[in-house]
Each structure stands twice: as C-alpha cells, then as structure tokens.
Amino acid sequence: YEVVWVPSMRMVVNVGDWDKSRWINLTGASGHAYSAHYTDQTDKWAKGELLDWPYKVNTVERATSDTLTLEPPAS
Questions:
Q1: What is the mean pLDDT of residues 27-50?
Q2: If DSSP states are collapsed to H, E and C, what string results for 18-42?
Q3: What is the distance between the alpha carbons of residues 68 and 32, in angstroms, rounded to a whole number?
Q4: Is the dihedral of CA 39, 32, 56, 59 positive or negative?
C-alpha cells in the first residue's frame, strides 16, 4: 500500500504526572512557514522521538529559553 498521509502530531499524556507527558509535531514549534522553527522537529518526528512537555509552572520556567509578551497598544 502507498502511504498518502501521516499523523502530524504525536503525544503521550501521563495523567498521573503531567510533567512526564511527551509530544512532537511534524512541522515543528511554529506554524509559520518562514520561521526558523517551522521544521525544527521534523528529523526527530521521522525517527519516532518525542520531546518533553512541561506542565507545572516551575517546570515550564526551567524549560523556557524565550518568552514572548504581548501587550495591547497604548490608547
């Protein structure tokens, strides 16, 4: 059989310990085609690898390398 589609995202959710959940997205961390992160997970996805999926605030803070802050325009 010829393969004509694939799952774009895989995830394993550990409801007993949310911080042990793992995931991967075929197209990467960004949905924007011109972003450097558009295909940054593709190789790992093809190898069947998964990435950590931090959940608790302190776990997310430890795993964070960049922060985007959006603010409404001044009136």
A1: 86
A2: HHHCEEEECCCCCCCCCCCCCCCCH
A3: 16
A4: positive
pTM of the model: 0.71
Measure the CA–CA gap between 42 and 49, rounded to whole angstroms.
Answer: 10
Residue-level pLDDT at 52: 95
- Per-residue pLDDT of 16-38, as tens digits, reads 999 999 999 888 778 788 888 88
- In order, the DSSP letters of 42-53 are HHHHHTT--EE-
Between CA 68 and CA 16 the distance in angstroms is 30
Owner of token pair 């310990």: 17
Side-chain half-sphere CA neighbours of 74 within 13 A: 0
C-alpha dihedral (52, 27, 38, 29), degrees to nearest 10: -30
